From TrEMBL:
It comes from Aquiflexum gelatinilyticum. The lineage of its organism: Bacteria, Pseudomonadati, Bacteroidota, Cytophagia, Cytophagales. Residues 149-247 form the HPt domain. The modification 4-aspartylphosphate is found at residue 53. One of its GO terms (biological process) is phosphorelay signal transduction system. SMART domains: REC. Gene3D superfamilies: 3.40.50.2300, HPT domain. This is Response regulator. Pfam families: Hpt, Response_reg.
Length: 247
């Protein structure tokens, strides 16, 4: 996701450093210390999203947003950031034209998830599922059924899915903290177990995901995590509904 660029607008240098540390793990970024500087940065640089502090000298966040919209400087999400945290304040900021609101003190996971949600809002999904891709290898299932009854086999797949979900939770925490190298260990476990159980779609994707991590290619790590989470969830739903495993 390094191709995406976020403008951090805050008059407090310490706050900017906090944002830089969190955002810089996943996105490119620029900074501005007040609204006037932010407008110049938006005019001269290509940004995909703006994090806008509300209370600033020279030009505050709300008036800066008004200029952006009235002069049509950019058509990008602008997220308000303020120490005001109650719902009335949030509703007020949204009513003034902000796309979302984040309260201080910042929670890293909430910040990154909010940014990601808005950056993806108008995107066409870059991954197109292959309808002919087999999710579960019938040969593996038939082999397992030779030695176990269908109920036991189903419980094995349910345990596999539960472990995947737990490992993905750990993976997201590693992404949030910028600890990318350790992600490979989590994906390796999912890859090994999915291969053993014939969960081919999960296995094939984990192969590529793990390869990217091993080669220190972290640009698409968040995207890969989100996609892996979606195919694990799809696999889970089909196991539950007996579309992939019929007793």
């Amino acid at each position: 996701m390094k191709a995406k660029k976020v403008l951090i607008v805050d008059d407090n240098s310490l706050n900017r450093k906090v944002f830089e540390h969190i955002i810089g793990q996943i996105y490119e970024f620029g900074t501005a210390s007040d609204g006037r500087e932010a407008l110049e940065k938006i005019k001269t640089g290509k940004f995909d999203l703006v994090l806008m502090d509300i209370q600033m000298p020279v030009l505050d966040g709300i008036n800066t947003l008004n200029v952006i919209k009235n002069e049509k400087i950019a058509n990008i999400p602008v997220i308000a950031v303020s120490a005001f945290a109650n719902e009335k304040d949030r509703d007020y900021f949204i009513s003034t034209g902000f796309d979302d609101f984040i309260s201080k003190p910042i929670k890293p996971r909430n910040l990154l998830e909010t940014i990601d949600r808005h950056l993806r809002k108008n995107e066409v999904p870059i991954r197109i599922d292959n309808p002919n891709e087999i999710e579960l290898d019938p040969k593996v299932v038939n082999t397992l059924l030779k030695f176990n009854n269908a109920e036991n086999i189903r419980s094995v797949y349910e345990e596999f899915i539960e472990e995947c979900i737990n490992l993905l939770v750990e993976t997201k925490s590693l992404i949030d903290s910028g600890n990318y190298p350790e992600i490979g260990e989590k994906i390796h476990i999912i890859k090994g177990n999915s291969g053993t159980l014939g969960a081919l779609k999960i296995y094939n994707f984990c192969q590529n995901f793990e390869k990217s991590i091993k080669s220190s290619n972290f640009e698409n790590t968040l995207e890969d995590y989100i996609y892996l989470k979606s195919i694990v969830q799809s696999f889970r739903l089909k196991i539950i509904s007996s579309q992939l495993l019929n007793p």
